[in-house]
Design a protein that fits this description.
The chain is mainly beta. It has 3 domains: 171 residues; 82 residues, no CATH class; 98 residues, Immunoglobulin-like (Sandwich), CATH 2.60.40.1930. It is 0% helix and 47% strand. It contains no helices and 37 strands. The protein has a 17-stranded parallel beta sheet that branches. It has a 9-stranded parallel beta sheet with strand order 1-15-18-20-22-25-27-29-3, with no helix packed on it. A hairpin with a 2-residue loop joins β36 and β37.
Length: 393
C-alpha cells in the first residue's frame, strides 16, 4: 500500500540522476505519432504540425480530422493517408499519399510523401523503479525531491510539487481537480502508465520561470496493462503544460483538454473541443511560453518599432508585430489595467528583423483572461514602448 503523507512533507531522493538534453528531432510537431492520429470534432490546433511517421498497422487511415477541426498556417499535416471531414479548416500545407477531403485546405497539397517522415526519433529515457510509494491525500500539499519511486498517486484536490531534475517511477495517477506542479526543468520517466483525471492541472508552478517545454514525461508502458487502459489517459477538462512521449502506447486527450507542449506516441486520440499549442522540448525550433508562437521576417528595419495589434478589438487571438534593427535582448509582456503582468510572450535574444507574436488571450498558466483593456509592452535594449488593446467576448 502507498505510504500516507503529511502536508508540506519533502521526500529525500533515492538516487540522483544526471539531466539529459533531448537530441534534435522534428522541430515543430505538436502531435507526432508513429502509427495513427485521430482528432475529433471542433478541436483546435493553435500552433504546431501534425505528423504520422509510418504506414498504419491494422485498418484505417493514418490521420483523421473530424468535423470543424482547425489547424494553423505556418505548420503542416503529414501522413500517408489523410481524411478531413466537412467544416474543418486546414490553414497550412498538407503532405500525403492518399487524401479524402470534404473540408477546406487553404495551404498547398503535395504528394507523394516519402515514409518514414522522420528517420531518427528522439532518444527515449527509461526508468529504473524505486521501492517507495507516494500518496498525496485530498487537500494536502507535498513536495517531492528527484529520485526513484514506485507508484505515485495524487488524490482529488491534492497538490504534488516536483522540484526539478529526474524522477523515475512505475506509475503516476493525478485525480480530479488535483495539481502536479513543477518549479524547475524536470524529466519524469514512467515505466507503466500516466493518468490525469478531470479538471486536473499538470504544469509549471505559479511564479516559476519555466514553461511547458521545460517538463518532459517519458512513458514506456503499452496499452491495457492494469490499471491503465492506455499508456497515457488525459481526462476531460484537464490542463496539461508539458511534453509527453509515449513510445509504445496510446495517448488520449479527453474532451475540452487544454494542452500546451509536444505530444509523441505510437497512437494519439484527441477528443472534442480540445485546444493544443506547441511548446516543444525538442531542439530545432524556439517557441515562446504558453499559447504563443512567433514568426520572423528577413527584412531588417532601420529603427525599433512596435505596431498596433491586429485585429483590435480581438477575440480570441491577435497578432503583435515589432521590428528590431539589430540583434538584441527582447521582452514582450501583457499587462492588465492594474499594471500586473498577465503573460510573457517573448523573452531572450532575438535576431534583427520584423517579428510577429500571436496571443490567444490566455495567461502564462493557460487560463483565459477576462474581457477588457490590456496593454502590451516591449523592452528591446534601450527601446521601451507600450500600446493598448481590447479583448471582447
Amino acid at each position: 500500500m502507498p505510504n500516507p503523507t503529511l502536508p508540506g512533507t519533502t521526500f529525500p531522493r533515492e538516487s540522483q540522476q544526471s539531466f539529459f538534453v533531448v537530441p534534435p528531432f522534428v522541430p515543430n510537431a505538436v502531435l507526432f505519432a508513429t502509427n495513427s492520429i485521430s482528432i475529433q470534432d471542433t478541436s483546435n490546433i493553435v500552433s504546431g504540425s501534425v505528423i504520422v511517421n509510418n504506414t498504419r498497422t491494422g485498418s484505417g487511415v493514418e490521420l483523421s480530422l473530424g468535423k470543424r477541426v482547425t489547424t494553423p498556417g505556418n505548420y503542416t499535416l503529414k501522413a500517408s493517408r489523410i481524411t478531413i471531414l466537412a467544416g474543418s479548416n486546414v490553414a497550412g500545407n498538407v503532405f500525403y499519399n492518399q487524401l479524402a477531403n470534404t473540408g477546406t485546405i487553404t495551404g498547398t497539397t503535395q504528394t507523394p510523401l516519402s515514409l518514414p517522415v522522420v528517420g531518427t526519433l528522439p532518444a527515449f529515457e527509461t526508468a529504473t523503479i524505486g521501492t517507495q510509494d507516494i500518496t498525496v491525500r485530498s487537500n494536502r500539499q507535498v513536495t517531492l525531491a528527484p529520485g526513484r519511486y514506485r507508484t505515485i498517486y495524487v488524490d482529488a484536490w491534492g497538490t504534488l510539487t516536483f522540484t526539478g531534475g529526474t524522477y523515475e517511477i512505475k506509475s503516476l495517477e493525478v485525480e480530479e481537480h488535483a495539481k502536479l506542479v513543477f518549479t524547475a526543468p524536470t524529466h519524469v520517466r514512467i515505466s507503466l502508465g500516466f493518468q490525469v483525471e478531470d479538471d486536473a492541472y499538470v504544469g509549471p508552478a505559479q511564479g516559476s520561470t519555466i514553461d511547458a517545454s521545460s517538463i518532459v514525461f517519458y512513458i514506456a508502458g503499452t496499452d491495457g496493462i492494469s490499471p491503465f487502459s492506455k499508456a497515457v489517459n488525459i481526462y476531460p477538462d484537464a490542463k496539461v503544460f508539458a511534453n509527453l512521449y509515449a513510445k509504445n502506447g496510446t495517448l488520449v486527450m479527453g474532451d475540452r483538454t487544454q494542452a500546451t507542449g509536444a505530444f509523441l506516441a505510437k497512437d494519439i486520440t484527441v477528443g472534442k473541443k480540445v485546444q493544443m499549442t506547441l511548446a516543444t522540448s525538442f531542439s530545432g525550433l524556439a517557441k515562446q511560453a504558453g499559447s504563443n508562437w512567433t514568426q520572423q521576417s528577413m527584412d531588417i528595419p532601420e529603427t525599433f518599432s512596435l505596431s498596433q495589434n491586429y485585429p483590435n478589438p480581438f477575440n480570441p487571438t491577435t497578432q503583435i508585430r515589432y521590428g528590431l534593427p539589430r540583434q538584441t535582448n527582447v521582452k514582450l509582456t501583457i499587462h492588465n489595467v492594474l499594471g500586473q503582468e498577465v503573460a510573457r510572450l517573448a523573452e531572450g535574444e532575438q535576431d534583427a528583423g520584423f517579428h510577429e507574436v500571436q496571443w490567444s488571450g490566455r495567461n502564462d498558466y493557460g487560463t483565459v483572461v477576462a474581457s477588457g483593456v490590456y496593454f502590451y509592452r516591449i523592452q528591446a535594449g534601450d527601446f521601451v514602448q507600450t500600446s493598448k488593446m481590447l479583448l471582447l467576448k
